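Human:
I keep going back and forth on a fold encoding question. Comparing notes only helps if you start from a blank page. Show me how you would write down a chain together with its backbone fold. Write it directly below this note and I will take it from there.

Assistant:
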Amino acid sequence: MRYECFDVSIKDDVAHIVLSRPERRNAMAAAFWDELPEIVEKIDQEAAAKVIVISSTGPHFTAGLDISAIGGGGGKGSSLSEEQAAMQHRIKGAKFYQNVKHMQNSFSILENCRIPVIAAVQGGAFGGGVDLLTACSMRFCTEDAFLTIFEIEVGMTADVGTFPRVLNHFPEGLVHELAYTGRRMFAQEAKTHGFFNEIYADHDAMLDAVMKIARDIAQKPALAIWGCKHMIKYSRDHTTEDALDYIAIWNASNLQPEEMMEAMVARAEKRPGKFVDLPPIRNKTAI
C-alpha cells in the first residue's frame, strides 16, 4: 500500500517506516496523523514484524507539526450562514479537543503496540518530532542531530505528547528550560541524559547499526520481548510493589517453558532460536 507521508518495507522480521517528504522537511501534514497509526496498528495486529524502525529522509528527521493539520476544517466558513457559523463556533473547542486526542493517539500507539519501536534520527527533531521520539522504545542519532520543543516559538503549549513523556528522560528543571526557551539540545547533551542510546557519524552508519540491532532483537523470543516492553512501561508508571505483583501475574499467564528451553538449546548450539511468533490480534467483532 502506498502512503503520502511514509515508505514502508518489511525484511528479516523488521518493519522499516521511513518519513518520505524531505522536500517539506517531513512536516507532519494531516495525512501523517492517519497513516502512522494505521501502519503501526496493521503491523501489530497482523504480527507482520517483530521490530519497527522509524527513520527519515533529507537533512532533518522532521520539522514537526504542520500547523494546518490542527485547523479544524477551515475554508468552508465563507459559505456558512451567520447562524451556522455561530453554531460551528460553539463546538470549535470540542472539535479541537477531538483532533488533538487523535494526534496524541498517533504517537501513543508506538508506545502501546506489542513490539519494540526504534527511532533513527538525523538533523533536527522539531516540536512534534520530540513527541514521536519520546514514545519510541529506543533512539539512535547522527552527530548533527538535535531536538527542540519548538512550540514556544509559535506561541503554543506542546500538547501532542511532549510533557507526559519527556519527563521520563530529563530532569524537571531542564524540561522547564527547554520548554520555555525552545533551544536546541544537540546529540551529545541528549545522550548524556540517556535520551539517545548511541551517536553515529552519519546517516548510513546509523542505519546500518540500527538495523543490526533490530535484526538481533527480531531473533529473540517475541513473547518475551512483548512481556519486557509491557512490563518496562508498567513499571515506569507504577510503584515497585505494584510492578512486582504484576510481573508475577503476567508470567503466571504467559511464561512458556518450551520457549525457555529452545532459547537455552539454541544458545548452546550457537544457532538462531525457533520461537513462536506473536499471535495476530483478533478482530473484536469476530466470534
Q: What stands out?
A: Confidence is low (pLDDT under 50) at residues 72-77. The chain has eleven helices and nine strands. The radius of gyration is 21 Å. Strands lie at 6-11, 14-19, 51-55, 117-121, 124-126, 138-142, 146-148, 185-186, 198-200.
